[in-house]
Each structure stands twice: as C-alpha cells, then as structure tokens.
User: Which sequence fits this backbone?
C-alpha cells in the first residue's frame, strides 16, 4: 500500500490497443503508475483524489523509435508529446549526457555506438568517430568496428555491460559478423535494430547483408526499409526499375512478418530526400519556435536537402520500396513502427517530426489506428517494454491529452493539451518555454560531406558537446 495521492484524469480514452475510443473515461495514477483506465462510472473516486477534467482524448505518450538525440533539444520531444525515444546511435559520452539531462525529458532508450564493418561510413566524421578495439576512442565514438564474428560477439557483450538497451547493427558488417552480433544480442536479451543501407546510400554499393539475411538473423526492427533494395536485386529484380514485381515484394513482406521483425520506415527521411519542396513545419508542435537550435537545424537542412536529379530519382525509388513494403507488411498483420531519424535528414523537427511521420504513414496506406499503434503499443513491443505504449493498469503513467479524436484524423495528435510523464503532469506551454530557453548544442550537424551520404546519422558522433 502506498499513501501517495490518487490523481484522476477524465476524458475520452484510447488505450493504445482498442479499435475505438472509450467515451467518458477516467485514468487514475498513483506515483508513476496507472492504476485504473476505463469507464469513469466504474471508478470509485475517493474524496482525497485530485481530479483533472481534461475535456480531451487521453492516449499513451508517443514513442519515436529512431532518433539521434542531443541534450540541446531533448526537451523538444516531451513538449511535442513524445515521452519516449529510442536513440539509434550516439557515443557513450552523449548517451550519458542525454540520461543526465536536468529538465523534464523523455525516457531515453539508447543503443550507444552502432556496430559496423572496418569500412565504416562513420569514418567520414573524422578522427575519433570510429572506435577500433584498443584505440582509446571508446567513449567518444558513435561507431565501433568489428572485423570477424568473435569480435562482434565481444563488442555486443561490452555494450551490454555498459548498459545499452538495444544494439544497432550497421550496413558494412559482413554477414557472419552480423549474424554473430545478432545472436549474441538475443542471448543477452537486447533487441537489435538495423540499418542495412538504401539504394541512395550504400545499400547497393558496399553493404553485404540484405533484408532476408537480417530477418534470418532475428533482428527486432529494420530501419528505413533498408536492405530490401539489395534483397530485391539478389532475387533478380531491379529496385530502381520503372515498376516493381508484386510477387517479389509479397515474398519479402511474408518473410518479414514470419520473422516477427518490425519495419520502422522513417518516411520523414524518405520525404526529405525524395521531395524537392520543403514541407510546412508551422503546423507541427514547436514548428514555429525560433532560436539557436532551430537556426542550427535549418542550417543543417540547407546543406542536406539539395540533391541532384539522379540522386532524387534514386531517393524516390527508395521511398517507393518503403511504401510498398509497409503496406504489405501491415496488411499481413506485421508490425510497422513510427520513427523519424531526427535530425539526420532534412526537415525532421525534434518531437514535432513524429506527428508528421504519423501523417505520412496514413498517407502511405495505414489506418490512423495502425499508425498510432506504431507510435504507442507496437513501438513498445519493439522496445520489448510492455509497461509502455498502453494506458492500462500497471503501465507507466506516460500519456498525453489531445483536443480531438486522432483515430478519425491522425493530425489531431498535434493539438496537445497535457503531457504526463511518469505520473508528472506537464503543460505543453511550459515545456515549450523550457525548450526555447536552451542554448544550441556545440554542433548539431556535420560538415557538408553528409550531403553526398544521404540518410543515416548526419550527426557526427562524439563531436557534439552537451
Ligand atoms: Zn538513424
């Protein structure tokens, strides 16, 4: 028994799983935990309870499954209703800074440095960006290289000892090291996320592991729908051709679902690469915020967005593959998660970008319900954290209140009224003010060399000082 005050929030409820809203509902919280979520009439509210009549829709806090966060804008996520982020690669020093953030901030799940092959793409970020066993860059590097399966297993164990919550495997790993790392991670209970490269990055030129091999290795999620272009080519097709073969796509989708692997398509990344025009960010949470962080983001986008006609065409082929696969995987009952890759590609707004991602997932063919699950209950399954992403008794009290029904129009998630993180109710306006007060991190972006590299981590690991 605890004598902490019971807090009750009333409104309509979407619990992260149900097909419809529960009208006239209540959520009761004690400490940081949900103790009741259901019809208001079924809750016996004691005199001592603190009741907040929200007049809105309560839903689980949003989860962004693909972020490369910086302390300077960590608070932006929470201000946008994103209560959890999965960091997809950062140096150990940056992970420590993220976890030590003083202001209210989202829960951070962190891979720490990703594992890549000896020709690691991260080398372009300069000395210290890549760690090779014994070179002293362990804490500063955003990528660790491995040369053979024994080294892969050893580095996964090292990461596990350092407290990472999942492992990120990258595009230049050889197939044996990839499989060994994935098996070791599974043995240690760490889910694996992987970026195998796109046609527009190194996915057809340097990457050795394709989506089929990654599925066979038992990865938890494939990011950007990477590795499918290579798999498609190895199946005899042309991923850049005028049309794609439904039979090959269907086989890839069926394999994905059978493996229990989720897609995190990061359509925001594909949009930033495939589209000539900048989207209107003014409709997104914090989209109109001014200040040094926004200025630094805009400067980075100005460098990464311009592409030649050929590269833009390849980016459109990558986006086509992403659309085809996510539709098919969802239709077969597979899992599609919501992630943005903030800030790696153009126009990805920390926090606000996830709302755009939801809209893009719906435009690509998901129902609002499927898209919302991808940022709540399905995202929590990808994190292997059943206490997140749902509003049910026993869950952590991370939720948001929005003005309208997002199951009817997914853009209603932008109309934030309240953010609750670990039972602490926070006003979006106050969170926005805190976010606006932050100074710019030392370096948000890398040099213009990123332009040629396309998506992937545009932030130079290790060079940003918190
Ligand atoms: Zn990424």
Assistant:
């Amino acid at each position: 028994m605890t004598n902490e005050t019971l807090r009750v929030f009333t409104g309509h409820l979407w619990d992260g799983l149900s097909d419809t809203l529960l009208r006239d509902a209540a959520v009761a919280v004690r400490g940081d935990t949900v103790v009741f979520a259901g019809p208001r009439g079924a809750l016996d509210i004691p005199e001592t309870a603190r009741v907040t009549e929200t007049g809105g829709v309560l839903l689980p806090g949003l989860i962004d499954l693909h972020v490369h966060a910086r302390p300077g804008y960590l608070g932006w996520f929470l201000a946008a209703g994103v209560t959890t982020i999965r960091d997809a690669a950062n140096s150990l020093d940056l992970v420590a800074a993220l976890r030590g953030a003083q202001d209210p901030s989202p829960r951070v799940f962190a891979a720490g440095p990703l594992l890549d092959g000896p020709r690691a793409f991260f080398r372009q970020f300069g000395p210290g960006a890549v760690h090779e066993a014994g070179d002293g860059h362990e804490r500063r590097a955003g990528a660790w290289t491995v040369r053979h399966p024994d080294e892969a297993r050893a580095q996964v164990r090292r990461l596990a000892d350092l407290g990472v919550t999942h492992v990120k495997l990258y595009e230049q790993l050889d197939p044996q090291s990839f499989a060994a790392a994935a098996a070791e991670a599974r043995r240690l209970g760490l889910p694996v996320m992987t970026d195998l490269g796109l046609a527009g990055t190194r996915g057809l030129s340097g990457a050795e592991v394709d989506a089929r091999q990654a599925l066979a290795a038992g990865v938890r999620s494939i990011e950007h729908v990477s590795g499918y272009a290579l798999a498609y080519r190895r199946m005899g097709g042309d991923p850049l051709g005028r049309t794609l073969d439904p039979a090959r796509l269907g086989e890839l989708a069926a394999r994905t679902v059978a493996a229990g692997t989720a897609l995190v398509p990061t359509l925001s990344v594909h949009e930033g690469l495939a589209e000539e025009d900048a989207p209107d960010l003014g409709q997104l949470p914090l989209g109109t915020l001014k200040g040094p962080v926004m200025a630094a983001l805009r400067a980075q986008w100005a460098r990464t967005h311009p592409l030649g006609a050929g590269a833009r065409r390849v980016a459109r082929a990558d986006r086509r593959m992403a659309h085809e696969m996510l539709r098919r995987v969802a239709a077969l009952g597979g899992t599609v998660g919501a992630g943005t890759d903030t800030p790696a590609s153009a126009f990805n707004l920390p926090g606000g970008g996830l709302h755009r991602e939801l809209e893009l997932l719906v435009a690509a063919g998901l129902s609002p319900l499927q898209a919302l699950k991808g940022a709540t209950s399905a995202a929590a399954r990808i994190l292997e954290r059943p206490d997140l992403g749902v509003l049910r008794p026993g869950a952590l009290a991370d939720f948001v209140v929005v003005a309208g029904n997002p199951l009817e129009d997914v853009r209603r998630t932008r109309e934030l009224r309240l953010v609750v993180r670990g039972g602490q109710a926070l006003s979006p306006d106050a969170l926005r003010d805190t976010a606006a007060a932050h100074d710019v991190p030392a370096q948000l972006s890398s040099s213009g060399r990123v332009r040629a590299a396309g998506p992937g981590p545009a932030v130079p690991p290790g060079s940003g000082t918190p």
